[in-house]
Amino acid sequence: MSTAVSVIRPGQVDTQVANRAARRIRDYLQSNPDQETISIDAELGGVDEALVVPRAAIVMFAQVLGMLADGQGVHIMPDRAMLTTQQAADMLNVSRPYLIRLLEEGEIPFTKVGTHRRVAFGDLLDYKRKDDQSRRTAAASLTALSGELGED
Fold first, then answer.
1. Is residue 120 predicted with pLDDT exceeding 50?
2. What residue spans define the domains of the chain?
3. Residues 2-39, buried b or exposed e (16+ Cβ, 10 A)?
């Protein structure tokens, strides 16, 4: 199980090249919406056959290229990567004590390595998705209630 994190820092790639590549990939994906795999013709170590790549990987690659074209850095992290509580708190933009409370209340699964808590990146993303959804639901309810009160 790999927990390696790949990082491309801002300025490490030519933004114009990244922009052209992202645009070409997006155009191809739009014109071929039903293809589940994409064949790429390229010279790869003397092998004379096309490289076949899953569509989801190509979509993600286009997104990465788009971010690089915008001058942003990119991190790619596997779901199983284990984060420290400080890293997890930073990713959620909350304090470390608040994150620890979420862990202890069972909101986010964690494991202990000795006395240290570790959070799987995938579990953190699951929590963030659920939290974002509940915030959107609450905001929609408040908007509806405000509309009802404003109609009087």
1. yes
2. 6-76, 82-150
3. eeeeeebeeeebeeeebeebbeebbeeeeeeeeeeebe
pTM strictly above 0.85: no
Q: What pLDDT is recorded for position 1?
A: 42
pLDDT digits (tens, 9 = 90+) for 27-47: 999 999 998 998 888 777 776
CATH code of the domain made up of 82-150: 1.10.1660
H-type helices in the chain, by residue range? 15-31, 55-69, 85-92, 96-104, 121-150
Q: What six digits make up the tokens of 82? A: 């284990």
Please name the residues in contact with 118: beta carbons below 8 A apart, sequence gap of 6 or more: 82, 83, 84, 110, 111, 112
Instruction: Give me the half-sphere count of Cα atoms (radius 13 Å) on the Cβ side of residue 48.
Output: 0
